[in-house]
Structure formats: C-alpha cells, structure tokens
Amino acid sequence: MEGGVPEADVFAFRECLALSWKNPYVLRLAFSAGIGGLLFGYDTGVISGALLYIRDDFKAVDRETWLQEAIVSMALAGAIIGASVGGWINDRFGRRKAIILADTLFFIGSVIMAAATNPAILIVGRVFVGLGVGMASMASPLYISEASPTRVRGALVSLNGFLITGGQFLSYLINLAFTNAPGTWRWMLGVAALPALIQIVLMTMLPESPRWLFRKEREEEAKTILRRIYPPEDVENEINTLKESVEMEIKEASNSDKVSITKMLKTKTVRRGLYAGMGLQIFQQFVGINTVMYYCPTIVQLAGFASNRVALLLSLVTAGLNAIGSIMSIYFIDKTGRRKLLLFSLSGVVVSLVVLTVVFHETTTHSPMVSPADTALFNNATCPAFNATLDSVGSAGGWDCMKCLKASPSCRFCASGSNKLLPGACLISSDTTEKQCENNERLWYTRGCPSKYGFLALIGLALYIIFFSPGMGTVPWVVNSEIYPLRYRGICGGMASTSNWVSNLIVAQSFLSLTDAIGTSCTFMIFIFITTAAIVFVLIFVPETKGLPIEAVEKMLDRRTLNFKFWQGNHDDGDDEVMKQKTQSV
Q1: pLDDT at residue 348 above 90?
Q2: Three-state secondary-structure class, residue 400
Q3: What pTM, to 2 d.p., does this model score?
Q4: pLDDT tens-place string over residues 524-550
Q5: Which residues fall within 8 angstroms of residue 413, CB to CB, at 6 or more apart?
Q6: What is the DSSP string of 80-132?
Q7: Directed axis angle between helix 550-559 and helix 573-585, to 10°?
C-alpha cells in the first residue's frame, strides 16, 4: 500500500477528464468539497491587499505594526484551533458536517469583518474565519479522498491544492476589482461569504463519505453511494476492499490507543520520520513563503511602488506564478524525486533572497533626500520630528525619505512631482495632507521610498515563487503522507501539520516588526541563513521516498543512519530500497 494520498500523474488527469463524461457525479462531489480549498486560498491572499486599505481607514492600524500583524495572524491562531478540533469533529460527526460547520464559521467571520467598526471587531472576524479554514484544511481533502474512485483519487485530491492556489489568485483579482469601490476592504473580505454559502447549500445535497459510513456501521448507505461512484463491474470489489480496509483500520486504531506518545517517540522509525516530516513543515514556513503571500503588496510598496492599486496589480503576478508552480510539481515530483526537488527548490530560494536583500539594501541606503523648501510648500503640515531638526540645526541635517518614515509613525514622504528620485517633502500623516500631495501629481509614500531598483525587487519575488512553489511548496506534504508507519500516521501527521500552522503564525506575527526593527534587507538576510540551514537539514535528515511502498519506507528508516557527512558521497537509501523491491518482485 502506498503511503498517504495517491499522487496525481498525467495518466490520472487523463482518467479524470474521461470521468467527467462518464460519471459527472464524482466531479460534482470533488468540486463541491474543493470549494473549502478555494476559501482557504482566498483568505490567505485577500488579507494582503485588504490590509493596505484597512490602514487607510483605521489610523491605529497604520501607526501600530503589531495591529497589522495581529489582523493577519489571528486567522492563523484560529486555524490552529480549528485544525486541532477538526480531526475529532470529522470522526465524530462526519466529513460532510465538518465541512458545513467550517463554511458556517467562515461565513460568520466574513460578515463580521465586512461590518467591523474598529480593529478589535475585525480581529474577532479573523479568528472565526481562521477556525473555518483550519477545519476545512482537514475535512475537504479527506472527503474528496474517501469519495473518489481509486484510479483518479490522486488527481481529484490534487484539485483541492489547485483550488487553494486558485483561491489566492482569485483574491488578488477581487482586490483589484474593488480598489475604487466605496468600502474597498469591506467588499474584499466580505465577498468570501458567497462561496461559503454556496458550499453549504451544495454539501447539504451531497452524501456522507462512504468510509465514514462504514466505520459507523451504516453499510447500506455506504454501498448506495459507492454504486454511484464506481462502474457496475467494479463496485462489488470496491465494497469488499473498503470493508476490509475499515475493519483493519479500526483494529489498528484500537491497538495504537495502547501505545503512549513516549513509547512512540522511542521507536526509531517514528522518531526519524518525525525529524524529516516536522522539520520540513517548520522550514517551509521559516524560509519566508507566507511573508510573501500575506504581505506581498506591502513588500512591493517597500520596494518603492507607492500606489495601492499598482502594488496589488504587481502582486497578482506572484499569485499566478504560485498557481503555475503547483501544477509543475505534479510533473517533476516523480521525475526527479522528493529530495532532489527540495534541494533544487531551496537553492533557488537562496538566490532569490540574495537578490531581495541586495535590492532592499540599495533602496534604503539611496532614498531621495528631504527638501526643507519643498516641505515648506505644505503649510503647517511638516512632520514634527523634521521640524525639530530644522529648528535645532537650521537645515535638513542629512534627512532622507527613509529617515523621514522611520522618525515617527505620523511622518510620510511626498515625492517630487517632476522626478520621484529628486528631494521631496517630509509631512505629517493625514487625509488632508495626502490629498494635497496627490493633487499636485505627486506620490505619497507610507512604507517604502522611491527607488530605481524597484523592478529588481519584483524579479526577486517572482524568482522566489518560481523556485519555492514546485519544491518546498508541495514536497513537505507529500513526504509527510509517505514517511510514517501506518499505525502512527494519524498522530504524526497531526503533529507535523500543527508545527506548520504554529511556524506560520510565528512568521506572520513577526515579519513587519522585524522590518521595522532591523530593516527589510536584514530581515531577508535572516531568511537566507534559515534557507541555507534547510538545505543542510534536507541533506542530513530527509531520505528519498520516491516509489517506495510504506512498508519499505519503514524498513529504510530502521536501517538508515543520519547522513551527517553528506559531502563524502551521495548514498541514497531510497534508491537502494527501490532496487531491492524490484529484485524481490522479479
């Protein structure tokens, strides 16, 4: 038996297309449940654009970096709780009811966010949405997997992954669509209630998972559903196979209850599997992917693009590349193997992070100067800190755009009208001053400064996504579905998923604070060191599991020694195990 979810390949996708003509009912099940993935992706992407306009409406959010991080990360805190209780809800009440509950929470959260009158209410809405996302992240792929024919199961489960990246891309399109609408961010966050409501309606008309029904001894209901999923010549065989599988699963579950966590961690194969599985999930977040997804428009503004609309438009490119990368991974993961794809991906991420580090260093050290004469054109609107400098030394005292923005949360930079790289004005932040600046056909900078290197930052972001998505974006989940012994797969998978969510929360909650404290270039430099450590980690701790049945993975982990002297050779236990399996079969 293969570990985890069967993987999608080109043949599976051809079968999937043929299935759409032969039995559209199966695709209806998969697409209806897959809307949960779409909502997951939409929430990940939409907050990055909405945050730009939330800062405009709530000045406290604009001034306080921790509030911006809280608005982003409280959804992750909710997702951790949702994922933690989601397993119990799935087993106790069924996959279908779990999805409906997740949608209900998402719908409530979307309505609360759209109607929020202050940041606190907005954060409450984010927690509700997070609870829904955490539950849906478990329930949707599980329902699709258990309600799909075996031959196309990998392709249909992969549909959930495509809808996640598709949801991210859609969120940027929605953000762009509402940039000029009254209430901008309220529409961006509130529109997610519609697909949640649609999924609630669809799921009430669909059956429960056949596997869950068998576990609850509701065999006749399960058989009725299986007869609609499988062709007549296959259905009886599938019913018998599923019945035997569930009986074995229940037996193994009762045995595993007798095994303590301590005893499990003392088991060498489990411990080594957790090294690789949890380590990959932690590194997936700490190399910085969700700083790009959650804060991409903000990063674009830090690179010198002042307009919210331009920042969103340029961020749309990264979302599109992320979707393309997830498709590429299906082709490459079985061609190159998991380990090689990880190493290639991480090496490319290092290169792109170096580009971003250099670009942001140049942007911050070569920003336009502040002109006292230009600032004086705006009556009684000078930044108080800059005014104090003028009063004490009688000149600008070496003030540039970056010094102006960092002097106080209430200071902003109005670029020169003729050339944004020429000296501009350091002004106090207010709606009146901003309009006065923009009415003179000048750009208003709130986070980054005008720069001639801004386009290089976009290239760096694009390279980051291109390298990250096919490898580190996908492989950690595949490895975690393959590397644990069957009897421990549930608890180990849960531990790895929780480590991913917690790491995601830490990174999202700290990124903007780090950029304020040490600068954007130094923040990306930290990601370079972490990514380099991830490369070493993969070389030492992660085995190749390509093509191995789960029983062979367990044997390999039992024999394998940690490859601390990886530079002395490229001995790959996974390849040896594959050859041994082939020899035995011959």
Answers
A1: yes
A2: strand
A3: 0.76
A4: 999 999 999 999 999 988 888 776 665
A5: 368, 370, 401, 404, 405, 424, 425, 426, 427, 444, 445, 449
A6: HHHHHHHHHHHHHH-HHHHHHHHHHHHHHHHHHHHH-SSHHHHHHHHHHHHHH
A7: 130
